[in-house]
TrEMBL record:
<dbReference type="Pfam" id="PF04857">
    <property type="entry name" value="CAF1"/>
</dbReference>
<dbReference type="GO" id="GO:0005634">
    <property type="term" value="C:nucleus"/>
</dbReference>
<dbReference type="GO" id="GO:0000175">
    <property type="term" value="F:3'-5'-RNA exonuclease activity"/>
</dbReference>
<dbReference type="GO" id="GO:1990431">
    <property type="term" value="P:priRNA 3'-end processing"/>
</dbReference>
<dbReference type="GO" id="GO:1990432">
    <property type="term" value="P:siRNA 3'-end processing"/>
</dbReference>
<dbReference type="InterPro" id="IPR006941">
    <property type="entry name" value="RNase_CAF1"/>
</dbReference>
<dbReference type="InterPro" id="IPR051181">
    <property type="entry name" value="CAF1_poly(A)_ribonucleases"/>
</dbReference>
<dbReference type="InterPro" id="IPR012337">
    <property type="entry name" value="RNaseH-like_sf"/>
</dbReference>
<protein>
    <submittedName>
        <fullName>Uncharacterized protein</fullName>
    </submittedName>
</protein>
<dbReference type="GO" id="GO:0000289">
    <property type="term" value="P:nuclear-transcribed mRNA poly(A) tail shortening"/>
</dbReference>
<dbReference type="GO" id="GO:0003723">
    <property type="term" value="F:RNA binding"/>
</dbReference>
<comment type="similarity">
    <text>Belongs to the CAF1 family.</text>
</comment>
<dbReference type="InterPro" id="IPR036397">
    <property type="entry name" value="RNaseH_sf"/>
</dbReference>
Length: 474
């Protein structure tokens, strides 16, 4: 494969926990090199409305109401599988120009490293989600046994606070209880006798123990007692005893540093697939998804933290932290001949309808089998639909979308931009068929350039079906 193609070090397109650390540098490199990246998630449940499914409920929610419902769902359920598909244009590829794609699939496990202060998560499923995923061959055992780890930014900040509080607590002396005094006096006698006989003792440490053992509180007051009463010595906490050792400041510094290093290594391991989301945000790579609004809500809660209360604050977060965002469902709605019903906008049906569109050419899926509702496959299918649809809509024409229905003043300038861009749209040529483009030119077809007015019309517009407005606009 030519050097500009997107490749991984390994041959597997599904990345498991045991592979992740080794593959991470290559995964980040894929994101750095790509022109755009498609994503897809599979969830343990979607929807948290108490009225959903009730007979006789005719209320059509507003976009703000749907957002609040999804915020509640994102707090309740989680992402179980994550698919990414970086894509890059290769103008000098052998035979003909094409898009190089590298889909990757990750099961995302809820596990947390034990070293991280016993921080835990709830893992909840809706019955309908379990039924749906089982029918589509989802391997729940693989999710838990081999799934990759993750850690949100807010979760990491919380764990760091727990560590700081523990460190402060460990450095704070506690007052022994009256009933502890005989035990401490016994410790004093043992240590004093040991120090007195050090010259004749082959061991430079003393193990303090008793048949019934010590609980955590007792070991702590013994250690602080040693530090206070015998300044040249320290107590080290072991499972069944406390060991007294001569103080060695260099050794103590190394012990403290090792604890810090172990903590940071545990955090690095736990961050897992969040590194990929962080890299997409850092580079502001164009982000493509199908029916993307729900994915973005869940992604924020799981990898960033609590969602903004107001939908406009969520809008501003996306505008500030991501580049171009495109919903292929929005593109699909406006593809087709005039006066005809739109093509099906489900990803599966859309994939079938576009399978006969040869150009722009994008590499086939690495496994010779359709795997809809597997996140990595759906991410690749989304990337393919994006490449085909954007070229069709740009070169052959389309139904021009109406300006956004949202009425918030924060969108006034965006609406003006869309109207101005619509006025520059070229004549509609073929309405979904590239009839006016010669074959030799078809081979060079690619998605519209990032600076094109096309993206002012079709970019940053996410379908939210079933709401009054029907669209979330960035």
């Amino acid at each position: 494969m030519e050097s500009d193609s997107l490749v991984l070090a390994g041959s597997k397109w599904e990345i498991e926990r045991v592979d992740f650390d080794r593959e991470l540098p290559h995964l980040l490199s894929l994101i750095e090199k790509c022109d755009f990246i498609a994503i897809d998630f599979e969830f343990s449940g979607v929807g948290n409305s108490p009225s959903r499914g009730q007979v006789g409920v005719n209320h059509k929610p507003t976009l703000a109401e749907r957002y609040k419902e999804l915020c509640g769902a994102a707090k309740t359920y989680s992402i179980m599988q994550m698919g990414i598909c970086p894509v890059k244009w290769l103008p000098n590829a052998p035979r003909e120009p094409r898009y190089s794609s590298r889909p990757c699939n990750f099961f995302v496990a809820p596990h947390v490293e034990r070293k991280l202060f016993k921080y835990d998560r709830a893992c909840l499923f809706s019955a309908s989600a379990i039924d749906f995923h089982l029918k589509n061959g989802f391997d729940f055992n693989r999710l838990y046994s081999r799934g990759c780890l993750y850690l949100g930014h807010q979760e990491e900040a919380h764990i760091r606070r727990l560590k700081r509080q523990r460190d402060e607590a460990d450095a704070t002396e506690i007052e022994p209880k009256e009933e502890d005094v005989p035990m401490l006096e016994e410790v004093r006698v043992q240590i004093a006798a040991w120090i007195k006989g050090l010259e004749d003792n082959p061991f430079d440490f003393l193990n303090i123990q008793r048949p019934e053992g010590y609980n955590g509180y007792q070991r702590r007051i013994i250690i602080q007692f040693i530090r206070r009463e015998f300044p040249g010595y320290i107590g080290v906490w072991y499972e069944q005893h406390v060991q007294v050792q001569p103080l060695n400041e260099e050794r103590e510094r190394k012990v403290i540093q090792k604890k810090e290093d172990d903590f940071e290594r545990a955090l690095k391991l736990q961050r897992g697939v969040r590194y990929l989301i962080d890299k997409i945000m850092e580079l502001k790579k164009p982000l493509i998804g199908h029916n993307l609004f729900t994915d973005l809500v869940y992604m924020h809660y799981m990898f960033i933290g609590d969602l903004p209360e107001d939908i406009n604050d969520f809008r501003r977060f996306l505008q500030q932290n991501f580049g171009l965002i495109v919903d292929t469902k929005f593109l699909a709605i406006h593809w087709g001949e005039p006066n005809q019903s739109p093509a099906s906008t489900s990803l599966t049906e859309l994939g079938y309808k576009l399978s006969n569109v040869i150009y722009p050419h994008i590499e086939d899926f690495p496994v010779n089998a359709e795997q809809y509702h597997v996140a990595g496959y759906d991410a690749w299918s989304t990337a393919r639909c994006f490449v085909k649809l954007s070229a069709l809509l740009y070169f052959a024409g389309s139904r021009n979308p109406a300006p956004p229905a949202e009425t918030d003043p924060c969108l006034d300038a965006r609406k003006e931009e869309i109207v101005a861009a619509l006025a520059t749209r070229p004549p509609r040529a073929g309405y979904g068929k590239l009839v006016d483009i010669e074959l030799e030119d078809k081979k060079k077809l690619r998605i519209p350039h990032r600076s094109s007015n096309f993206w002012k019309v079709f970019g940053g517009r996410l379908c939210v079906n079933g709401t009054v407005e029907g669209e979330f606009t960035l």
